[in-house]
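Can you give me the bound-state structure? Components:
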Amino acid sequence: MKICPFCAHKNREGYLYCEECGQPLKSDEPSATLPTKQLEVSPDDYAAHATWGTARFEKDSAIIMHIRDTTEPLTFQPEGQTVLGRSDNTSTQKPDLDLTPYGALEKGVSRIHAAIFRTEDTLTLVDKGSANGTHLNGQRLVPNQPRVLRDGDEIRLGKLIAHIYFKPQH
Amino acid sequence: MNIDFDPYVVLGVASDASFEEIKDAHRRAVRRLHSDTNPNKGAVAQLQDINVAYNLLSEPDKRERYNQQAKKLPQRKFDFILRVTPSKRSLAPMPEPQVVYMLVEILPDPRAREQQEVVTRQSRLNLTLVLDRSNSMNGVRLERVKVAAHQIVDQLNEDDVFSVVTFNDYADVIIPATSVQDKAQLKAHISMMSASGGTEIFKGLAAGIEQNRQFLAPKLVNHIILLTDGNTYGDQERCVSLAKKAASEGMIVSAMGLGSDWNDKFLDEIATVSGGACAYIKSPSSVVQFLNDHVRSLVNVFVERLQLSVAPDADVRLETAFKLAPNSQPLSVEEPSLALGNLPLNRITSVLLQFEVPANLQEGFRSVARLIARGDILANDDPRFQALSDFSIGISRNAEQEETPAALLDALGKLTLYRLQERAQEAVESGDIQEATRRLENLATRLFERGQDELGQQALAEAQQVAYTSSLSDKGRKALKFQTRFLLAPPAESSESGS
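Here's the bound-state model for the whole set.
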């Protein structure tokens, strides 16, 4: 199985383009190429690990978010949807993660800017139609189209730059 | 016994092979292709030929007679070349099935290009136009069709054969099949067309095929062009089986839809089963150019009635097939062989095949499929010719990472756009509006990336259309389908585009 790095669609092994979003699937990404000996042990587990790589978000893990030019990283456990934005007295909707203390207003973060979705084993980042856009590793996201979030990714909300790390719970 | 292929090649044995070798080769083939174990349509067809070859070569008398006959055959002037490029030459065994692509190209003999005049002279046309004159064609549409037909008459040579059938609720043969002598008279007949009544494609198509059949010959380009702007009701299946039968006799049907009210799936199927082209003509103003370009592509034909038979091994599936060039057209893997139409002298026919190979492959070197391309080389005295290619891959746990061949990657990238459009449409049909909208937006993004801004805008417009009305617009749907498909066909060589 080949998981599309852009939309997390599960493509069949051997596909060269994602059938869901049309992006090329890189052949040098690790895929489930297994020695048969290990296969006999537990094919499913091993296959899953081999394909997911840095995109796998373990149960009970937490996200560490390093916002540039700040000292204290944010740590939180995403459940379902985590909305990133800035809180504002006039608006009715509040974000789950308020970035006002990190200069969100000056850096052009929208009130409801982006969201991190948690599915079983992965996280996806979605732009919620923000004014100044959401970038993932330098690529601007199309609003409302989820992209897989990996350990070590750089995200940018307006001009606010942050790095995302996964912290497994022991 | 008359056979139109080389039995030694089909069995894969040398011309001095012993009886034991022949028996062995036959047994191997049966094991590989028999329908008890191999569900692929192409396997059955190829096994029939192998059985014929075996019956011929296993009996010394027959074999000797064949050898004598073969010696007397005239030297073939020209061949064509079958070239196969797989996405991977070696595979690692996987715990799951995997997909392998294959780019199949059929190229005219390089010697033929040097003798273009000889070849072109041999490419004589037997052309039938089947033209819709239902009420909806009234006015500018019919007028443009007349102009187009006039220009086609001008293009023809004296030894070409030409016929015209018009249809509404009935079919009229306005020009019975005849050699092109008096062009002015032919044009006068065409000018008298007038529009009225409904659209019954079956009657028109049947009459057209009957006209074409009168001069049907293996040394001619026997081609029928059907042009309609409407839907036919209740006779679509009969039309398709008619086209299939015509194809088996050696005729090719191309279908052109004008405007946005015709049934694209239906016309597509007619073209697919016979090896013709299906085209969408957006507005009457482009009818003249469209038809003329199509006829021009027919006067340069090097191979006519090209067929590709694909016989995968029993555990391999041929999943999809798509013709990329000279014109792009989906192919049906349900047929025993893929109808590829004609190959003009200065073009290449290329087809993209998608196979699935099973999980947990045994290590070693194994065959995947046998491909046979067959067609009539019009410039040869004995036009029948076939080229054969056996495709094998290595299976190894440490299979090397390979670069995917650029031509294959490029073709597949473009085909992905067409498939996205298809998948969006499937989602609309199954009522999954959210999914359909997302796929259309994805398609738009990919189109913008490729600099196809106009088409990208169209995809976005359709995404909105779907979100509001839960269906695609007739016009937008056809535009996306045929224009994403059009991206697949490489541009014609400059030598051809000069009119």
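A couple of observations. Residues 29-51 of chain A have pLDDT under 50 and may be disordered. Helices of chain A lie at 36-41, 43-52.
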